[in-house]
UniProtKB/TrEMBL annotation:
Positions of transmembrane segments: 20-39, 45-65
Keyword Membrane: yes
One Gene Ontology molecular-function label: phosphorelay sensor kinase activity
Residues of the Response regulatory domain: 651-767
4-aspartylphosphate found at: D702
Signal sequence range: none
Enzyme class, spelled out: transferase
Reactions that this protein is recorded to catalyse: ATP + protein L-histidine = ADP + protein N-phospho-L-histidine
InterPro entries (UniProt xref): CheY-like_superfamily (IPR011006), HATPase_C_sf (IPR036890), HATPase_dom (IPR003594), His_kinase_dom (IPR005467), HisK_dim/P_dom (IPR003661), HisK_dim/P_sf (IPR036097), Sig_transdc_His_kin-like_C (IPR004358), Sig_transdc_resp-reg_receiver (IPR001789)
Protein name per Swiss-Prot or TrEMBL: histidine kinase
This enzyme's EC code(s): 2.7.13.3
Length: 768
């Protein structure tokens, strides 16, 4: 390889005549100065010679400086060009006027390692059939215009060859691969069906890998490939390949700019030219459709994918749906060549399961009649993943909305029920207003239960877990469940003889079981049997179901089985979605199973559903087994409660941004004898505590407030008052704060809405 070592760019040298002129000027100056000394010429002649000689020396110095600057500038240009070429991802060569390669970059050395020649034409012969003609044509244009480029179709695809004329007569050549993309925007090389692009004159412009593999080589025109022209679209054509003639089904797709796409599949040639049997056995799901929508023919794979025995007298709109616009418009636009040749995702009209297909519609001409070829591709997995992502986003958004609404309602309910408690302190049962106050109080409690459902759905409710034996829980619930199912339905309980305990909120667990039983009852309008079975299972390894993984370990399962109508397979995956229901309007809200899902997940369990249409449905609940620990400390604490001192002295700093809640809590604590300091924000509370003489025993603070939140200001305050007790209150759940969850010593959590007694008892327990 010719050129500088470690550089793909040859040296630029200052021309020899310039150096000769510089040397001659210096020599002449020396001779003139010497002559003034050697010959006895008059002084004025000697001084003149010396002056001329010095002038020539100055001129020579200026010439040397200019030459040095030119050399430095060319060196900088060389370095810049060298760096650009060396880092270029495309193969680059520097060649002289005769095509001899002076240097090449690493990309060129790697790409043409097997065809390394001294000339550019010899190197590119591995890519171009006649590189000399192309190189001469481009080099001639580069001499005239300074640069030139040309796109050339090769056996490996499109190649862009460009050349730039450099100073000194050298040429910089670049070889760049151009990726051919189909009309759908994907690389045509990835299509498994043989495909070629043909120009107006029958020249083959492009062939994908599948086509080259079938034919055995790349052809330049259709007359070298097909025995009979023109090509008969939708029929069997004879093709010439490297292994001999073959029979192939050919489909022609008309594109813009005078280009056509030919798709062809090899057949056994046993059928006639129309090839109906061959069409049916094509290895790709195909439909032939009239522009009006009637299905003209369909192959076996398409029938299997659509789940039908035949498509006689059916239109495409009856087989699939979900286009978003009339199917007839799409078909008519494609037949007229107005619609872009892109794929559409549609849902098949199947009742056994939900199937999505990617439909690519192409226009073809058979015997002068326009038909449409629909290629189907099963896209169920893709659409399922997309639906799961959308559903997760929707669940998250609705959960945040439900949690926010519940938080605001809890503040309102705290104020309503709290002030109702204050009124009840001044009215006894003989008072005429006592009954109205009780009604307000009970309805406030009902509203609180509704809010807890919203929080359960968003998994932000406050649970009160306790150790439960499911046999006792179901036994207490049996009477109510029997009343719910009615006389036509029989309720049967079956328990594992060796039952293990679980830890859950009893009230919420009862709500889940009642919801499942009511749904089972509604699924059997003619009556039947509902079975509730409990069992202890030990998993040796994790099990995966419905995108959830149940870890190995001991679990208590509860199964609720019915003999009802069952759930359609395409609806089974949606039963836990909020507001989704299979019941008629007015018979269900669609929140029951989504609420149950939230409760079970917050408890640390799992819920799954299995159903067979017409045979019944089975819901399975997994609860982790509770490892019983010694609870003597709690028992001792409960015994000491009776001897604890009564309400009395103590200073409480109450921090609450909601004025009605703050007013109720302040009055409730003062009625029990406490001294209450009020603050409407965390900043006000910290300013109050700046007084070193102020003694505070308990902080009662909201968690979520404008500005600084509750845990943040409490941590700041405890730096100077480390022994102060804390009561956090919030309309959210205790475990719904993530990283901001209160992690403060000597603190307890009181969920909203709370009653007068709950607030005062909590403060009392903290003080004592």
């Amino acid at each position: 390889m010719i050129g500088r070592q470690n550089s793909p760019v040859p040296d630029f040298r200052v021309s020899a005549p310039e150096n000769a002129r510089l040397a001659a000027t210096v020599l002449l100056a020396i001779m003139m100065v010497s002559a003034s000394w050697l010959f006895g010429w008059p002084d004025w002649v000697a001084r003149g010679l010396i002056a001329v000689g010095l002038t020539l020396v100055a001129v020579a110095a200026m010439m040397a400086a200019q030459a040095r600057l030119r050399i430095r500038a060319r060196a900088m240009a060389t370095d810049l060009l060298t760096g650009f070429i060396e880092k270029d991802a495309s193969p680059s060569f520097v060649a002289d006027d005769d095509g001899v390669i002076h240097a090449r970059n690493p990309a060129a050395a790697k790409r043409f390692a097997d065809a390394e020649k001294e000339t550019l034409a010899g190197t590119l012969r591995a890519v171009l059939a006649n590189p000399s003609a192309v190189l001469f044509r481009l080099q001639s244009r580069a001499r005239a215009d300074g640069a030139a480029q040309e796109d050339v179709i090769t056996r490996r695809g499109h190649v862009r060859l460009s050349v730039h004329q450099m100073h000194g007569g050298s040429f910089l050549w670049r070889v760049e691969d151009i990726v051919e993309r189909s009309s759908t925007g994907r690389n045509a090389e990835s299509i498994p069906i043989p495909l070629m692009t043909v120009g107006r004159t029958g020249a083959v412009l492009f062939m994908n890998e599948a086509a080259r593999s079938l034919i055995g080589s790349r052809v330049k025109s259709l007359d070298r490939l097909f025995v009979d022209l023109p090509v008969r679209s939708g029929q069997i054509n004879t093709m010439t390949t490297a292994n001999g003639p073959i029979q192939a089904m050919v489909v022609e797709n008309t594109r813009t700019q005078g280009r056509n796409e030919l798709y062809f599949l090899e057949t056994d040639g046993a059928e006639g030219s129309e090839g109906n049997t061959t069409f049916e056995n094509l290895p790709v799901p195909f439909l032939k459709v009239a522009p009006s929508g009637e299905v003209l023919s369909v192959n076996k794979l398409a029938l299997a994918l659509m789940g039908v025995a035949n498509c006689n007298d059916k239109k495409l709109g009856q087989l699939m749906e979900g286009l978003g616009r009339p199917m007839s418009d799409w078909l008519r636009d494609t037949a007229d060549g107005l619609a872009p040749n892109k794929s559409e995702f549609l849902r098949l009209s199947r009742r056994d399961k939900e199937v999505f297909v990617q439909v690519t519609l192409s226009r073809a001409v058979e015997d002068g009649v326009t038909v449409l070829i629909a290629v189907l591709n099963d896209a169920t997995e893709l659409k399922t993943l997309e639906a799961q992502f959308v559903q997760s986003q929707k669940m998250q958004a609705i959960g945040q909305l439900a949690g926010g609404v519940a938080h605001d309602f809890n503040n309102l309910l705290t104020a309503i029920s709290g002030h109702c408690d204050l009124l009840l302190l001044r009215h006894d049962q003989g008072d005429q207003d006592y009954g109205d106050l009780i009604q307000i109080h009970e309805n406030a409690n009902r509203a609180a239960a509704l809010v807890s459902q919203l929080l359960a759905f968003s998994r932000k409710q406050t649970l009160l877990p306790e150790v439960l034996d499911l046999r006792d829980t179901l036994s207490d619930l049996t009477h109510l469940l029997n009343r719910l199912v009615g006389e036509k339905v029989t309720l049967t309980l079956s328990h594992d003889p060796v039952m293990r305990s679980i830890r859950a909120d009893k009230r919420q667990l009862e709500q889940v079981l009642m919801n499942l039983v009511v749904n089972a009852r509604d699924a059997m309008p003619q009556g039947g049997e509902i079975r509730i079975e409990t069992e202890v299972v030990s998993l040796d390894r994790p099990i995966e179901r419905n995108r959830a993984t149940v870890p190995a370990g001991d679990w208590v399962t509860v199964k609720v089985l019915d003999e009802g109508e069952g759930i359609d397979p395409d609806k089974l995956q949606k039963v836990f979605e909020p507001f989704y229901t299979t019941k008629r309007t007015g018979e269900g809200t669609g929140l029951g199973l989504s609420t149950a899902y939230g409760i079970i997940k917050q408890t640390g369990g799992y819920i799954f559903v299995d159903s067979i249409k017409g045979s019944g449905t089975e819901f399975t609940l997994y609860f982790p087994v509770h490892n019983a620990q010694v609870l003597q400390a709690k028992s001792a604490k409960s015994k000491i409660e009776d001897t604890a001192p009564k309400h009395g002295e103590g200073v409480v700093l109450l921090v609450e941004d909601e004025a009605p809640v703050r007013a109720f809590a302040s009055r409730a604590l003062r009625l029990r004898g406490y001294t209450v300091l009020e603050a409407e924000s965390a900043e006000d509370a910290l300013r109050t505590l700046e007084d070193p003489g102020l003694s505070v025993d308990v902080f009662v603070t909201d968690v979520v407030m404008p500005g600084m939140d509750g845990p943040s200001w409490v941590r700041e305050a405890l730096k100077t008052r480390p022994d102060t007790r804390v009561v956090f209150v919030s309309g959210y759940a205790e475990g719904a704060f993530g990283e901001s969850q209160p992690n403060v010593p000597n603190s307890v959590f009181l969920p909203k809405p709370f009653s007068l007694n709950q607030l005062t008892e909590t403060v009392h327990e903290q003080l004592n």
